[in-house]
Amino acid sequence: MPSNDQPDARKNPARLTTQAIAAGYDSTQILSDVSLAVANGQMTVLVGPNGSGKSTLLKTMARILAPNAGQVLLDGKSIHAAKSVPRQRLWHRFEVVI
Q1: In the chain, what is the straight-line distance between the N-terminal and C-terminal CA atoms, in Å?
Q2: Which residues of the chain, if any, have pLDDT below 50?
Q3: Closest CA relative to residue 91, chosen from 68, 64, 54
Q4: Structure confidence at residue 76 (pLDDT)
Q5: To which CATH superfamily is domain 14-93 assigned?
Q6: pTM of this prediction?
Q7: What are the sequence ranges of the domains in the chain?
Q8: Where does the record place the ABC transporter domain (predicted)?
Q9: In the prediction, which pLDDT does 29 show?
Q10: At residue 53, what are phi and psi to the nearest 5 degrees?
Q11: Closest-CA residue to 34 (of 12, 50, 10, 58)
Q12: Which three-class secondary structure string do you get for the chain?
């Protein structure tokens, strides 16, 4: 039984997920094998030192940067597949606060 302070995945499934993402710029790989599930209706925070890949991950999740490997899924559909998820719909699903 989940505690009161933890989201119940059955009631609040992740709508935005990454699966084994690898991404970077030119020949420099920044991310390797990153998997993440963002629970619907929950605040998710990425914390790390400068250069750890936070912005690269967010750019990949926002379809600004294409992954070298892996995939980003919104409601079970790849956001990087040809026009599978319109960019406006994607951007309305989550916000980035810097």
Answers
A1: 35
A2: 1-3, 98
A3: 64
A4: 86
A5: P-loop containing nucleotide triphosphate hydrolases (3.40.50.300)
A6: 0.74
A7: 14-93
A8: 31-83
A9: 95
A10: 105, 10
A11: 58
A12: CCCCCCCCCCCCCEEEEEEEEEEEECCEEEEEEEEEEEECCCCCCCCCCCCCCHHHHHHHHCCCCCCCEEEEEECCEECCCCCCCCHHHHHHHCCCCC
